[in-house]
Write the structure tokens for this entry.
Amino acid sequence: MHPYDADLYYEDIIARQGRVFLWIRDELPEVDERWFIENYMRSDMRRLLDSANPKYAAMSSPELIYWFVNFEQDGRFKEYKRGETWGGFLPQWVGQMYAHYQWQFNVASERLIEILPLPEMERIFPTLHQTGWHVAAQKIHDEVLCGRC
């Protein structure tokens, strides 16, 4: 059973996570986007978003970034890794796809980043980024992840 229905979860968490992964360029200049995404997906905050915790579900994208950097794990991310950006809208798509997949298949985000790592997301982006979220998540589940089951 999902804590939100799909429409509410989409606006509150799925779309917002996409914006977080896109806006980190502005909020954290020179951040290594892959480092940020991997740590964010494994964070306590993301675990709480998996269950639609209202405190975090109501935060704006900049607030989520600020909270993650300054308060997650007692502020251990204040010294974030600097590195390359992906460019374009790939981070936004990855953020939304991870959140949608998490909701659709009820997989913990910390587990999802392990079974569907960022290089795999980058590989499938050109093929799936223009399909609908539900269809893309189902294809990932059927073709990518079930091949590993």
Summary: The chain has one domain: 6-148. Residues 6-148 form one domain. The chain is about 65% helix and 0% strand.
